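User: I would dearly like some help making sense of a protein record. This is the protein in question:
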Amino acid sequence: MAVRLNVRFKVADAREAATRTKFQSLVKRGTVKEVARVDSYLIDAPLSSSAVARIKEVLFTPQTQTCSVGIPRPPRSLAYAIEVGYLPGVTDNVGKTAKEALESVLKRRLKAGEEVYALKTFFLSGVLTKKDAERIAAAEHNPLIERASVLSGAEYASKAASEAPRVELVAGAASLEVNLFVPDEELLRISKEGIAGPQGRRGPLALPLEALKTIRTHFHRLGRNPTDVELESLAQTWSEHCKHGIFSDPLDEITEGIYRTYIKGATKKIREEKGKDDFCVSVFTDNSGAIAFDDEYLVTHKVETHNSPSALDPFGGAITGIVGVNRDTIGFGIGAKPVINVYGFCVGNPDSKQKLFRDKEGTSEVLSPARILEGVVRGVGSGGNESGIPSPQGFVCVDDRYSGKPLVFAGTVGLIPRVIRGRDSTKKKARPGDLIVVVGNRVGLDGIHGATFSSVALDSRSPVTAVQIGDPITQKKMSDALIKEARDKGLYSSITDNGAGGLSCSVAEMAKEMRLPAGRQGGCVVSLEKAPLKYAGLLPWQIWISESQERMTLAVPPSKWNALRDLLKRHGVEAAVIGTFTDSGRAVVRFGGKVVMDMEMEFLHDGRPVQFQKSESPKIATAPAPAPSKNLSRSLTRLLSDPSIGSFSFISSQYDHEVQGGSVTKPLQGRGRVNAEATVTRPLLSSQKAVVLSQGYAPWYAELDSYRMATAAIDSAIRSAIAAGADPDHLALLDNFCWCSSGSPERLFQLKEAARACHDAAIAYGAPFISGKDSMFNDFKGFDSKGNPIAISVPPTLLISAISVVKDAGKAVTLDFKMPGDLLYVLGETKDEMGGSAYYSKESGLSHVLHRGAVVPSVAAAKNKELYRRFFRAVKGGLVASALSIGRGGLAVALGKASLGGMLGLEADVASLAKLPADKILFGESQGRILASVSPKQKKAFEKIMGDNAALIGTVTNGSRLIVRQGKKEILKLALSQIAEAYRKPFSAFV
């Protein structure tokens, strides 16, 4: 019988007060009087009473906590008890850490099948009904990954024991042959629902009909059917998530595909034009892109998305996203150290009361936007904070069209020496005879079909097994062992992340990229029974494609294996040899001595049939332009309180940005603590050089003009970085396309136009793309609360991330006004460009429509580039006191943020900016503009550098008001207190 140890505080537990507030918001006011919390550890192993006594000592702090054995005693006033724990097989990080502590005390490893599970119990006092308690339990757990029991006081009193959530797998055939000589209808069912097995369909393969027929033909020529392992492996490798077919295949006249033509093509041209000034070192060929930091180091950058998993389990999806992109950094070259994390969350309105369901019967409810936001924020925070990586930079974008499927962006910057042990650190190749070594976590059912699941729309068939939960503690130990020691000792030849597709992709990709003489191809021989498992009974196809987290795949020379194994063991990191790299040109996989996969590498990687795609220009919805607001001050407060514009300090304040000690400019800037749009960090503390990071996005323009949407995203990212002090001639970009209904001709047209814009703008700015990612099917298909079918697609969304290197971190610029008397300048041109503006959306109540007579903002890249170069000269000369990119909400929003940041007032006259109505000057979203403040002492020097690119509009005051005139007419007047109240209104429920 399992032993249960229970820990509770004997002093005030702040978690209980917060939980009571949360629970009380779910039921009738005054219903929940008190909440008591108990954290329990269920030890599923035989233990003596003396062993239990020793274990107790490491699980609690006697000064502040108590620890009991057995069922925890409830308070006398118990109304209901709610107990929450993970379902069988779900990663339990708390239980895993407790297990390690237990093994340390016992001085032995637990046997196979012996585990420790974490539980939390809430004791509720008050006048509650069973329905109240069940509503609270539903909000406190996610049924896809957790179990919850609700017991009345009487029921709890009779509770005698706790059941361990053991994984019990039904034995099945080691491998199956799959007959593909079936009607097209059955092939499509295999694609959508998976291979049929004893326990039913396995989950989506997400292969087009033509791809399945290509596989059928290939194996027919071999005189046999494919095995399930082979078919699953092909599905992972050929998935949209891994192969990016939509970006790679011909689209209309773009015969080379939009990726090669527009994204890769732009970078190639830019690098050629830069010549000896090219700062790119590695682009599009590794897990991350890399640019020069200085003569000795490179900085890497990669941004990933984890959208589909985050829709099912926000915490698990987000933490997996951030630790996964950390591994992309560790897997760059022969290993880069993660030094900065970035994030971005596109979610539905947290205040929305709309209910969505995956099934018509309404039994499988989609998590609310508020629940999703809370989960993804906690997930990225846990992943970053527990990994010891600062997370200074991020954003939140709110739109109802993200309600069905959120977009969760997670990125990591790495640092790596150019040369390690006399070897170019970016070069890595496995060699024939190298051992295939898996390092880190064990393999489980979590993450199965993650790659194929992310290649289709979210609906009722979405597999629960695709959900993973990252373990940052295990990964931190692995990262330290590899990057701080094994790498510099030269104990491996190559390394890569064991991510999408699990072993099936990481091993096969390393084999494909082996260092071989001409005419020979890499291969591998794998014995799956040697892979460390979380529990017994996994089938070979499950072991091969599982995406269980915190794993890296290494190529290790046999002579180095013992040293590597011993080093990893000292760090508490598990490693196993599962095979050997060969020069056979074949991927051979065995299980228990039986061959379950034997496939040519060429077919595995290059056999996917090409899809010929056609696009069609979409129709654009229009609406009458709203009448000019009669109260522009009220319009500004409405915009500042928009969750896509206002403060998300509740995130910034809980994410550690000071760890590693390199933070220069902060995520919350000025006395007024305003969210920064760019941050500056020193990744190498012995150097004054710094990395500037920013992000740009404009999904509100997507349905109106996707070309201009993309150019706005690029200009926004570049402009925000420039405003923080970035060098425009040492700046690189990353692209993350998150599209919807990507098979439709209209969406393909928008995609093509956005990619074309990336090409044009990148070349114009001389800013190369170094890495990118696309996520193509961000759609939800389900039902509303009345059982009516409903489909929700995200707006076509392009995130552009910018990374730049500056020589002197001391010259970095923040957004907040600094001193009364400083002069205010608007840099760039203000034009009549109101199409898709936040102001028009608010005033009309209609978003993602083109208001008649309005123009979507365009980007004059050549002109902007000259302005940015001049501004950078001013920054280097120490002439700029503050700067802020003018973006969503226009000049008025920028003035409000800068004033609030410095807790200083301003007086301005905007008449000189343009001959336009006041609302268009204040709220137009013309690109290429920066709001800057300059000391009067620097006026002459600043204006000399900026020339006619700068318009002096006013001064910073010592007052507490923002006053804006147009000539003699006062058009805006607000107290700083009003600005602060509006700006801090969004997400107040999360604070």
In short: The domain at 429-608 is CATH 3.90.650.10 (Phosphoribosyl-aminoimidazole Synthetase; Chain A, domain 2).
